[in-house]
TrEMBL record:
The lineage of its organism: Bacteria, Bacillati, Actinomycetota, Actinomycetes, Pseudonocardiales. The keyword Hydrolase applies. InterPro entries: Inositol_monoP_metal-BS (IPR020583), Inositol_monophosphatase-like (IPR000760). Keywords: Hydrolase, Magnesium, Metal-binding. It holds the Pfam family Inositol_P. The keyword Hydrolase applies. Signal peptide: none annotated. This is Inositol monophosphatase family protein.
Length: 266
């Protein structure tokens, strides 16, 4: 077994453990951790359990989690974990949420697992091996016409500079809304990216790049034959400002729309 295959097995087991925790907690507490930003005690329970599991299985690899921050050295390799992506959905009983886990090596992810605990699907990928949903290979959209495209857009910005950031988002929504088949705002980057990999969405525009939100989905999309770029169209890395995932046939149209929204002239 290759190292990536062994690490993928560990990632798969980790998100399975997370699903058990999520589905075994019929009640939970909700608290605010920032401006209109929520956390539940299930988020922290999942992260604590997966941190302990990953530290035991891969002590040589660091961990970055949304709720507890960074631990371990890892020498440039680290797990990026979002214990529940889509917490606001989860807290309201909306089943669109996921557990996202990626192994990041340098600037890119090499192993990914995203599980959707209420939809019964686990997406997995290892670099160079393809992307899978419950063990079945998936492929990104081959659409080439914007009028055929269903596009997910990430949440509006909150906190500092939100008004300025959202001005560009509104321009982008107006542009795409006039030309795309449908626009969706699902409230979870993990599902946005997994569904681009699965061909259910033709593009996902996440105008931020928290590694715990995005790095698993980035690998899934790439292994499914899609493209993932930064806001300016350059190749996406862990340090990118945005995460733009798209079937290859619509890459130029999506980047052009972003340029218009942000007033970029090339």
């Amino acid at each position: 077994m290759t190292e990536h295959a062994a690490l993928l097995d560990i990632a798969r087991e980790a998100v399975a453990k997370a699903t058990e925790i999520v589905r075994s907690r019929p009640s939970f507490s909700v608290s605010a951790k920032g401006d209109r930003d929520l956390v539940t005690d299930v988020d922290t329970a999942v992260e604590d359990a997966l941190r302990a599991f990953l530290a035991a299985e891969t002590p040589e690899i660091g961990i970055l989690g949304e709720e507890r921050g960074r631990s371990g050295d890892g020498g440039g390799r680290w797990w990026a974990l979002d214990p529940i992506d889509g917490t606001a959905n989860f807290a309201r009983g909306i089943p669109l949420c996921g557990i996202s886990l990626a192994l990041v090596d340098g600037e890119h992810s090499t192993v990914a697992a995203i599980t959707l605990p209420y939809l019964g699907v686990t997406y997995t990928a290892a670099r160079g091996e393809g992307a899978f949903a419950n063990g079945k290979r998936v492929g990104a959209s081959t659409a080439t016409e914007m009028s055929d495209a269903m596009i997910a857009v990430g949440d509006f910005a909150i906190g500092e500079l939100a008004e300025e950031k959202n001005r560009a988002r509104l321009t982008l929504l107006s542009d795409l809304g006039a030309r795309a088949q449908k626009i969706r705002m699902l409230g979870t980057a993990a599902i946005d990216l997994a569904w681009v990999a699965d061909g259910k969405l033709d593009a996902a525009l996440i105008l931020s790049n928290n590694p715990w939100d995005t790095m698993a989905g980035v690998l899934l999309v790439r292994e499914a034959g899609g493209a993932v770029v930064d806001r300016d169209g350059s190749e996406h890395t862990v340090g990118s400002a945005a995460t733009i995932a798209v079937g290859a046939g619509l890459r130029k149209e999506i980047v052009d729309a972003l340029d218009r929204a942000y007033g970029v002239v090339r």
